[in-house]
Write a structure and sequence with these properties.
Helix content: 25-40%
Number of helices: 14
Distance between the termini: 58 Å
CATH superfamily of the largest domain: NAD(P)-binding Rossmann-like Domain
CATH architecture of the largest domain: 3-Layer(aba) Sandwich
Structural class: alpha/beta
CATH class of the largest domain: Alpha Beta
Bound molecules: nicotinamide-adenine-dinucleotide
Strand order of the largest sheet: 3-2-1-4-5-6-7-8
Strand content: 5-15%
Shape: elongated
Largest sheet: 8 strands, mixed
CATH topology of the largest domain: Rossmann fold
Length: 436
């Protein structure tokens, strides 16, 4: 299939699409293309995940099982671990993880493994797009050579582009199909084809001059978020010293209709993206002898938040003549953010560990996370009950899940430490609710 044939099959939505990695990013993307009429195969090395998807079970909060089952029945979506489907695909999109190593350096091994699998089965005329967030020059410096080693000429034999994924799991306003895509191809033909592909499912495609620009755009978005969260977190420390409510101050500032975007403090940062992606950029620059100061400072402030939350909790208990050692603490929410069951990099895990270390008797409730392992010990979620609230010494809100009844929590718990401003505006006697 050459450039123009692929272009026609994309426009006619007959191009066969394979999406490697069926996680939080790959699955919603696959479903969006399937809904648009394409025939999509979701490829994953995790056999349990593939089995669940084949049975129509989804793991992301944004996709109902009925919707997946309907697409499977229509023959528009199938999940497989069989890599030979790549040979029969016109388009291959790579959505595999890009975590950090223990040393906090990028772990790019999943991208290399996926790229190697695709290149080994590469078919003339294929379009390959990398969506995983990664450091600048991954597409051209790492992926491209894997294909070139097989004698494939980019822009002629095959087409290669980077298009960052911007999905925000559990965001009810912006789903995959609502968010503009940035696309940067290795050659103009690569950009054109990738832009045409995404133009089938999103309202707007923004073309840039190279994969590097697209890689950097994604990193800048997440550095922006990371730095602003750090600013809100440090601002919370300042407000506490000055005896003001951070939430009240930020809400007031947010009434300015231009030049201000509110970010709120929290127990730290979590998830697969915001704590991780900035370090991909700083790592890359360090290779060139440059230290990215904003990223380092924001990382330092955000990573200090779990200790700060423990300190605030200990102080709040102290004011009630209790000490952390032996206190019954009921943590609400361990997922890294509202409405998801994802605990990757969740600051709640560190906080639970530190509380246990200090001798607290810790339990947790999270309707989306049935169990967690803290320092090698398995903790099972408890139901959030009136009895559980009244019998605790302190209820610690770590994730503001929509399922929690915050009025009841404030009413029944003897002490509430709220790291998410979830109880803001709910009347309580002085000193009962302590917020960041
Ligand atoms: N989660 C988010 O909110 C989000 C948002 C935007 C961008 N991203 C980026 O998207 C990428 C994927 O993130 P995710 O959250 O979907 O990860 P995930 O862990 O939820 O899913 C990745 C999937 O890829 C599979 N996989 C790994 N190696 C594979 C291989 N060689 N072949 C086939 N399957 C393989 C895993 O089994 C897993 O199911 C990352 O780079 C991440 O930074 C994530």
């Amino acid at each position: 299939m050459n450039d123009s044939r692929l272009s026609v099959s994309i426009r006619e939505r007959t191009a066969r699409i394979a999406i490697i990695g069926q996680g939080y990013v790959g699955l919603p993307l696959a479903v969006e293309f399937a809904r648009a009429g394409f025939s999509v195969v979701g490829v994953d090395t995790d056999l349990d995940r593939v089995g669940a998807l084949q049975a129509g079970q989804t793991h992301t909060p944004d996709l109902a099982s009925e919707d997946l089952i309907a697409l499977i029945r229509l023959g528009r979506y199938e999940a497989t671990a069989d890599l030979s489907v790549l040979e029969r695909s016109d388009v291959v999109i790579i959505c595999v993880p890009t975590p950090l190593r223990k040393s906090k350096d990028p772990d790019i091994s999943f991208v290399v493994a996926a790229g190697t699998e695709v290149a080994a089965r590469y078919q003339p005329g294929q379009l390959v797009v990398l969506e995983s967030t990664t450091y600048p020059e991954t597409t051209e410096g790492l992926l491209l050579p894997i294909f070139q080693a097989r004698g494939a000429k980019v822009g002629e034999d095959f087409f290669l582009a980077f298009s960052p994924e911007r999905i925000d799991p559990a965001n009810p306003t912006f789903k995959v199909g609502d968010i503009p895509k940035v696309v940067g191809g290795v050659t103009p033909a690569c950009t054109r084809l990738a832009a045409s592909l995404y133009g089938q499912i999103v309202p707007r495609v923004h073309e840039v001059s190279s994969p590097k620009v697209a890689e950097l755009a994604k990193l800048y978005e997440n550095v922006f978020r990371n730095v602003n969260i750090a600013l809100a977190n440090e601002f919370a420390l300042m407000c506490r010293r000055l005896g003001a409510s951070t939430k009240e101050v930020i809400d007031a500032a947010a009434t300015k209709p231009f030049g201000f975007m509110p970010f709120y403090p929290g127990p730290g940062i979590g998830g697969h993206c915001i704590p991780v992606d900035p370090l991909y950029l700083s790592w890359k620059l360090r290779l060139d002898g440059y230290e990215s100061r904003f990223i380092a400072l924001a990382d330092e402030i955000n990573r200090a938040m779990p200790s700060y939350v423990v300190e605030v909790t200990a102080e709040a208990l102290n004011r009630q003549r209790r000490c952390l050692n032996g206190a019954r603490i009921l943590a609400l929410g361990v997922a890294y953010k509202r409405g998801v069951g994802d605990i990757r990099e969740s600051p709640a895990l560190e906080i639970l560990g530190k509380l246990r270390e200090a001798g607290a008797d810790v339990s947790y409730a999270d309707p989306r996370v049935p169990s967690v392992v803290i320092d090698g010990v398995l903790l099972k979620a408890t139901e959030l009950t009136a009895e559980g609230l009244t019998s605790s010494d302190c209820v610690l809100i770590l994730t503001d899940h929509p399922e929690f009844d915050y009025r009841q929590i404030v009413e029944l718990a003897p002490l509430v430490v709220d790291t998410r401003s979830a109880t803001w505006g709910i009347p309580a006697r002085p000193g009962k609710v302590v917020s960041l």
